[in-house]
Write a structure and sequence with these properties.
Length: about 425
C-alpha cells in the first residue's frame, strides 16, 4: 500500500483538527487513548530513499505520538523524512487494516470501520457463546465489560482500542466455536485466537482474552458433558495453550527481525522492553505487591459512573443464581461454579506480573476488573442452567466420561447443546 494517499488523508485530518490530541476525555468517564491512535496511523510511514516494503515490514518505521506527529505528517507530505525512525513495533499486524482503510477513506473512515469491527465482533462472540451455553450466560459474561467501561466510546476516540477489543472478542468466539467440537478443533481455534490477538495488539489487555478463553472453553465443555473434571482439563489446557501461542507469535516476530537487523540488536531491545514493563520506574509507579490490582480496581470504581451500580447488580445476581445452583444441584453444583470461575484470577496475576504497564495504563487496563465480574456470573449461570450430558460423537470434547465423577441432575428446561 503506497504512502502517498495515506499521508494526504492524514494531512487533511491534521488540518481539520481530528488528529489528536493526546489524553482527551472520552466523555464516558475515562480518557481516550489518542496517544496510541496517533502512533498507529503513522506506523509504516517513511520517506527514506531506496527503502522497500520488506525493509519497512522488518523494522517498522513510525511517526511520533500526537504532540510531534502532526509535524511528522507535514514533513512526510513535503517528501522529508520524519524525526522518528525505527520502532520495531512487533505487534503491528493492524497495518493490514489501517493502511488500506486510511488510503481509501482517511482517519474518520477508519474510525467508522473500527466501530463496525467492534459491533460485529461483539455479536459474533455473544452468538457463539450463547449457542453453546445460553443467552443469559453469554449476556452475563459480556454485559459488565460493555456497561461499565468506555468500550462504546473507543471507535470515535481511540480506534486502536476498538480494534484491540474486536480481536479480544474474535479470540473468545474462536474458543467458543472450538469447544463445541473435538479436542483438536479446540486446540487449533485457541491457538489461532491467541496468535491473532498478539499479531494485532500485543500489550493492551491480553489478560482479558486469555481469561475469557479459559472460562468459555471450560464452561462449554461442562455444559456439553456435565463433568467438572473434563471441564477443568479444558480450562487448564486453554489457560496454558493461549499464552503459549501468544508467546510464540511474539517470538516469531523477533526471529524475523533478527534475520535482518542482527540478533544482538534485537535482543537488547527485547530485554530493555521486558525489564521496563515489569519493573521499570515511572512517576507514580509503585513496586509493592498488590498495588497494580488495587490501582486498576480504584480507577474503575472512581472514574466509571456505572461501576458501583454494576458491582451491586452483579453481586445480587450472583447470590440469586448461587441459591438456584444449591437448590438444583447441591454442594457439588456450587463447587462446580467456583471452580469454573477460577480463570478470573488470570487478570490480577497479569496486573502484578506486568506491574509497570498495569499502573501506567490504568485508563484501559482497568477493563479487566468488570471482566472478572462477568466471568463469575457466567460460570454460575451456566451451572444453574446445565442439564445431564447427551450422547456425543466419539472424539468430541464431551466424550469419555469418568465413572467416578458425579453428573449433575437437571430438569428438561436447561441448556440444549448445539
Amino acid at each position: 500500500m503506497p504512502d502517498e494517499p495515506i499521508i494526504a488523508n492524514l494531512v487533511n485530518s491534521v488540518d481539520a483538527g481530528t488528529y489528536g490530541p493526546s489524553g482527551a476525555p472520552d466523555r464516558m468517564g475515562g480518557v481516550s487513548d489518542t496517544f496510541t491512535e496517533c502512533v498507529v496511523v503513522g506506523t509504516g510511514l517513511s520517506a527514506l530513499d531506496g527503502e522497500t516494503a520488506l525493509d519497512r515490514a522488518v523494522y517498522m518505521p513510525r511517526i511520533s505520538n500526537c504532540e510531534q506527529g502532526a509535524d511528522d505528517i507535514r514533513a512526510l507530505a513535503a517528501d522529508q523524512d520524519s524525526a522518528h525512525g525505527a520502532y520495531y513495533k512487533y505487534w503491528a499486524g493492524y497495518t493490514a487494516i489501517t493502511r488500506p482503510v486510511l488510503a481509501a477513506t482517511g482517519l474518520e473512515g477508519l474510525r467508522i470501520v473500527a466501530g463496525a469491527m467492534l459491533l460485529g465482533s461483539l455479536a459474533l462472540a455473544f452468538s457463539q457463546i450463547a449457542r453453546r451455553t445460553s443467552g443469559f450466560a453469554s449476556l452475563g459474561l459480556l454485559a459488565p465489560l460493555v456497561i461499565s467501561t468506555n468500550l462504546m466510546s473507543t471507535p470515535s476516540t481511540s480506534f486502536s482500542q476498538a480494534m484491540s477489543i474486536s480481536f479480544i472478542m474474535i479470540s473468545t468466539a474462536l474458543v467458543a466455536w472450538g469447544a463445541g467440537g473435538s479436542w483438536t478443533r479446540l486446540i487449533c481455534s485457541t491457538s489461532l485466537g491467541a496468535a491473532l490477538f498478539c499479531f494485532v495488539d500485543l500489550l493492551t489487555t491480553p489478560a482479558i482474552p486469555w481469561a475469557l478463553g479459559a472460562v468459555v472453553g471450560a464452561v462449554i465443555v461442562f455444559c456439553r458433558s456435565g463433568r467438572l473434571g473434563r471441564a477443568s482439563i479444558a480450562g487448564v489446557g486453554i489457560a496454558v495453550l493461549w499464552p503459549l501461542s501468544f508467546g510464540l507469535t511474539w517470538v516469531s516476530r523477533w526471529v524475523i527481525a533478527a534475520a535482518f537487523l542482527g540478533w544482538e540488536e534485537v535482543m537488547a531491545f527485547v530485554r530493555s522492553n521486558v525489564e521496563y514493563r515489569t519493573t521499570g520506574e515511572w512517576p507514580g509507579v509503585e513496586d509493592a505487591f498488590g498495588v497494580p490490582t488495587r490501582k486498576n480496581v480504584l480507577y474503575w470504581w472512581d472514574q466509571i459512573p456505572t461501576a458501583p451500580w454494576t458491582l451491586l447488580v452483579m453481586s445480587v445476581l450472583v447470590c440469586i443464581v448461587m441459591i438456584v445452583v444449591l437448590r438444583r444441584h447441591g454442594v457439588w453444583g456450587a463447587l462446580s461454579a467456583v471452580v469454573l470461575s477460577l480463570p478470573a484470577l488470570i487478570i490480577p496475576v497479569w496486573y502484578e506480573v506486568l506491574s509497570n504497564h498495569s499502573q501506567i495504563h490504568t485508563f484501559f487496563a482497568y477493563r479487566g476488573v468488570p471482566t472478572m465480574l462477568g466471568i463469575v456470573l457466567f460460570a454460575c449461570v451456566a451451572v444453574a442452567l446445565s442439564r445431564p450430558p447427551l450422547a456425543t460423537s466419539r472424539g468430541s470434547v464431551s466424550s469419555g466420561r469418568a465413572r467416578s465423577e458425579p453428573v449433575l441432575q437437571h430438569d428438561e428446561k436447561g441448556y440444549e447443546p448445539s
